Amino acid sequence: MATVEIYTKATCPFCHRAKALLDQKGVSYQEIPIDGDAALREVMIKRSGRTTVPQIFINAQHVGGCDDLFALDGRNGLEPLLK
């Protein structure tokens, strides 16, 4: 089973959509909330090169944000990464 990490904020609708897709697929993930945590946000930015949430990593590979996750799933690229 893949290791999935997702950087989130509690009020982010895109975070909720991304988590819902992962939940629907029965994927367990480590949620890393960055609300009010500047140091954790910096770690996310260094890892992803992006400042927005969510940022999603599968087996330490950056797959992007919510739209990227849905696009990956749409072209049947998500399932192979989750194996």
From TrEMBL:
Keyword match Zinc-finger: no
PROSITE patterns: GLUTAREDOXIN_1, GLUTAREDOXIN_2
Its biological purpose: Has a glutathione-disulfide oxidoreductase activity in the presence of NADPH and glutathione reductase. Reduces low molecular weight disulfides and proteins.
One annotated GO molecular function: glutathione disulfide oxidoreductase activity
Domain Glutaredoxin residues, every copy: 4-63
Cellular component terms per the entry's GO annotation: cytoplasm
Annotated protein name in UniProt: Glutaredoxin
Pfam families in alphabetical order: Glutaredoxin
Native source organism of the sequence: Erwinia tasmaniensis (strain DSM 17950 / CFBP 7177 / CIP 109463 / NCPPB 4357 / Et1/99)
Similarity-based family: Belongs to the glutaredoxin family.
UniProt keyword terms in alphabetical order: Cytoplasm, Deoxyribonucleotide synthesis, Disulfide bond, Electron transport, Oxidoreductase, Redox-active center, Transport
Any single GO BP term: deoxyribonucleotide biosynthetic process
Keyword Ribosomal protein: no
